[in-house]
Specification:
The complex is a heterodimer of chains A (about 375) and B (about 270).
Chain A: H1 5-31, E1 34-43, E2 47-49, E3 52-61, E4 66-69, E5 74-77, E6 91-94, E7 97-101, E8 108-112, E9 122-128, E10 133-137, E11 139-142, E12 144-151, E13 154-158, E14 161-163, E15 167-172, E16 175-179, E17 182-184, E18 188-193, E19 196-200, E20 203-205, E21 209-214, E22 217-221, E23 224-226, E24 231-236, E25 239-243, E26 246-248, E27 252-257, E28 260-264, E29 274-279, E30 282-286, E31 289-291, E32 296-301, E33 304-308, E34 311-313, E35 318-322, E36 328-329, H2 340-346, E37 347-348, E38 359-360
Parallel strand pairs in A: 1-3, 2-4, 3-5, 3-6, 4-7, 5-8, 6-9, 7-10, 8-11, 9-12, 10-13, 11-14, 12-15, 13-16, 14-17, 15-18, 16-19, 17-20, 18-21, 19-22, 20-23, 21-24, 22-25, 23-26, 24-27, 25-28, 27-29, 28-30, 29-32, 30-33, 31-34, 32-35, 35-37, 36-38
Chain B: H1 2-23, E1 36-41, E2 45-47, E3 50-59, E4 64-67, E5 72-75, E6 93-96, E7 99-103, E8 110-114, E9 127-131, E10 137-139, E11 141-144, E12 148-153, E13 158-160, E14 163-165, E15 169-174, E16 180-182, E17 185-187, E18 191-195, E19 202-204, E20 207-209, E21 214-218, E22 225-227, E23 230-232, E24 236-240, E25 252-253, E26 257-261
Parallel strand pairs in B: 1-3, 2-4, 3-5, 3-6, 4-7, 5-8, 6-9, 7-10, 8-11, 9-12, 10-13, 11-14, 12-15, 13-16, 14-17, 15-18, 16-19, 17-20, 18-21, 19-22, 20-23, 21-24, 23-25, 24-26
Classes of the chains: A mainly beta (about 375), B mainly beta (about 270).
Chain lengths: ~375, ~270
């Protein structure tokens, strides 16, 4: 088809229109409050999001760059599962700084873009070697593989909700402060290793595992860990200071393996099996309530330390089981009764099974001490 | 022109099919092609003859794992204790969120065996977990040295004539699970069958023998139906919160304690 002068002008007009359209496009996208990132893109300069964002790929925040997200923003991720493993791969990957500043009235939402969302639709808010302090405040993070994920990073998670993710939060070699957050109905609530963590006033419920950590230093106060299907909190080869927490209604409450622990003023009750399970750990367990647990208030396995001033009452099979070969000093506790025969009945130890250590339950309390959850870490 | 277009469409179609099949490893599996398994599977999967679980296996929602009669599954225990378990357990696990159909027969049971190393511990793997699984059948399977041989979470499979030995827990039904547990033999574990958090399994003709702790444990919110089970040689035969649960005491014999009513930590025989 041969050209003509009129056709040429029309083509020029079309090109000019297209050029203008491209020039205006980003502005109109922002004006329409939907900013789209497709494929693999990187933010190389400080950026502020204030509105609706669609991430249809992997968005990287370069080292040294800050991404700030303002109240009310909604960030949606498309589902892309290249290998059929049920885990979406579209996500944010940050080596810079992420500051998400929602408010109570206008939280920032991170969610799936799918009409029928499910856990694992998108990857994570990943932080890698992000040593400046990152902040997630008043956020809702849902339907991710890992809501928050970090390596070698520092972060504060404040007043945020992590729900319906495969894992609410997972991090390694990081320093994280979590205050006033809710981890609800994730497959696993929170897991971390080689990290230093402060967890205050937060809730972890409705998961298989509530909290699981390895080789970490955890300070936990004023938290509620409830209705998790395996363990409420599992600390392995770590250090924990737990004060004033409610760890209730899980299959097992608090499970310590080869760890150092101060467990003070907590309610470890109504768990299906054990309130607290101590395995080869060094512990101070004082002023706690261990009541109405299905199998036993305490299961003690070759641990050492102080166990005193606790209330051990109305548990299922036993109040205290010593399954280890070492003796346990458990003086000055309330055993649900002041009668010596009742106290003996509440304890299973070497006097019931040969080869096991004895439990020294002398000087029992004659009545339970008033129980109050400690409100703050002293 | 039309011919070219048709050829082009056919070529695109073929390329798309090939790409789809090769890029989605879980779409389908030919029996006998692959004998080592680990990872997540979203398509139907058939195991037969000799199979190795080299690590965790997850059957995703919508997928089915069928295990044919006579299959032997060799389980490779996780090296040490995993720091970041991929799914639920730090031990090697078979996790089913779809459907499980184990088709063992009396002549050809399905066997899970442990590949032993010098570091293998007494409890060597996690076992089978059904998590919101659909209609599943577990027939004539032999399981040993699992943390929990069969754990049902909001799942109600039929578990028929399994042999479960030396496990920490035999069968756990939790979170509104109502499995039919029929004619199984559970021996030499820590605990036998546990009903937790609103679960009402049907237990009939099972033999639950020689457990270090409770043979049958029922929490306050569960109501299993206990029907002609043989429970002997355990520390506690029946450990029961519900006071109104019918059971056949004649077959609960020779335990250190045949029945323990729960809730007073052994301090009074409250009924």
């Amino acid at each position: 088809m041969a050209g003509s002068p009129g056709t040429g002008r029309r083509q020029m007009m079309r090109l000019w229109s297209l050029f203008l359209l491209l020039l205006v496009a980003p502005v109109s996208a922002i004006a329409d409050e939907v900013l789209v990132y497709q494929g693999e893109q990187t933010i190389f300069e400080d950026t502020v999001w204030n509105g609706d964002i669609l991430i249809d790929g992997i968005l990287t925040v370069a080292a040294g760059v800050t991404l700030e997200i303002r109240p009310g923003s909604q960030i949606r991720f498309t589902r892309f599962d290249s290998n059929g493993d049920g885990i979406g791969e579209h996500e944010i990957f940050s080596q810079g700084i992420i500051r998400v500043i929602g408010t109570v009235d206008e939280p920032v939402l991170f969610t799936s873009a799918e009409a029928e969302p499910r856990p694992g639709d998108w990857g994570a808010i990943n932080m890698m070697v992000s040593e400046e302090e990152n902040l997630l405040e008043n956020c809702i993070i849902e339907y991710a593989y890992r809501g928050f994920h970090a390596h070698y990073s520092q972060a504060r998670l404040l007043n945020s909700t992590f729900r319906n993710n495969m894992r609410g939060a997972q991090f390694q070699e990081s320093q994280v402060v979590i205050d006033g957050c809710r981890f609800l109905d994730n497959r696993n609530g929170m897991q971390f290793r080689d990290s230093k963590v402060t967890l205050r006033g937060s809730t972890i419920s409705g998961s298989h595992w509530g909290l699981r950590c390895v080789y970490s230093d955890l300070k936990m106060s004023g938290c509620t860990i409830e209705n998790n299907l395996v363990n409420g909190a599992n600390i392995r080869d770590g250090k924990i200071e737990a004060r004033g927490n409610r760890i209730v209604g899980n299959r097992r409450g608090l499970y310590l393996q080869r760890s150092e622990a101060q467990i003070v003023g907590n309610d470890l009750s109504a768990n299906s099996e054990h309130g607290i399970f101590l395995e080869e750990s060094t512990v101070e367990v004082v002023d706690n309530r261990l009541a109405n647990n299905g199998r036993a208030g305490v299961r003690w396995l070759n641990s050492k330390g102080r166990f005193a001033r606790n209330m051990i009452a109305d548990n299922g099979v036993y109040g205290f089981i010593n399954d280890g070969t070492t003796a346990v000093e458990a003086r000055n506790n309330w055993w649900g009764s002041a009668k010596s025969t009742d106290i003996v009945a509440a304890i299973r130890d070497g006097s019931d099974r040969s080869g096991l250590g004895l439990v020294d339950s002398r000087y029992p309390l004659m009545q339970p001490l008033p129980f109050n959850l400690l409100s703050e870490t002293p | 022109m039309d011919m070219k277009l048709s050829c082009w469409k056919i070529t695109c179609f073929v390329v798309a099919i090939v790409a789809a099949v090769t890029s989605c490893p879980s779409a389908s599996y030919a029996v006998d092609m692959v004998q080592e398994y680990s990872g997540a599977f979203s398509g139907d999967l058939v195991w037969q003859e000799s199979v190795t679980m080299t690590a965790d296996v997850l059957i995703l929602k919508g997928a089915t794992l069928t295990i044919r009669a006579g299959t032997q599954i060799s389980v490779v225990p996780a090296e040490g204790t995993k720091i970041d378990p991929e799914y639920l357990s730090p031990l090697t696990e078979l996790l089913v969120r779809g459907k499980l159909d184990i088709q063992g027969t009396p002549e050809k049971p399905v066997r899970f065996i442990i590949i032993e190393t010098s570091e293998t511990e007494e409890i060597a793997w996690a076992g089978i977990t059904l998590d919101n699984a659909v209609e599943s059948y577990i027939q004539r399977v032999e399981l040993e040295r699992a943390d929990t041989a069969i754990r049902c979470v909001t799942s109600s499979p039929e578990i028929i004539e399994a042999k479960i030995a030396n496990c920490r827990y035999g069968i756990v039904a939790q979170q509104q699970s109502h499995p039919k547990i029929l004619g199984n033999i559970l021996v030499d574990g820590e605990g036998g069958i546990f009903s937790l958090s609103g679960s009402n399994p049907y237990l009939k003709n099972n033999q639950i023998i020689n457990h270090d702790e409770e043979a049958v444990f029922v929490d306050a919110s569960s109501r299993p139906w206990l029907d002609r089970n043989t429970i002997k040689g355990n520390a506690i035969g029946l450990a029961l919160y519900p006071r109104d649960l019918p059971y056949d005491l004649t077959a609960v014999t020779d335990n250190q304690e045949n029945v323990r009513w729960l809730g007073r930590q052994g301090q009074a025989d409250v009924k």
